[in-house]
Design brief:
With 81 residues, this protein is mostly helical. It contains 2 helices and no strands. The protein is extended.
Amino acid sequence: MPSLYPAFGAEPGSEDEKIQKAWLQERYHAVSDDVNQPVDKAGAAKFIEILIEFTREVADAPEAPQWKPESFFRRFVKAGA
């Protein structure tokens, strides 16, 4: 069964994208991680609500999700599944 993978980020070529890429390369899961960084808890809660609603809509849709033709994982689908 395909999984949901919401992809999001900054506008390609924007200053925000440069900042995001630098953060991913220099800080994400690095020794420089700082667990004391401020967190927008209200924003995080809203984001989770959006993901829950998105997941619910996919789950309740009349047709099951389909693999993208280029998906690496498509090769593991059993016949008839």
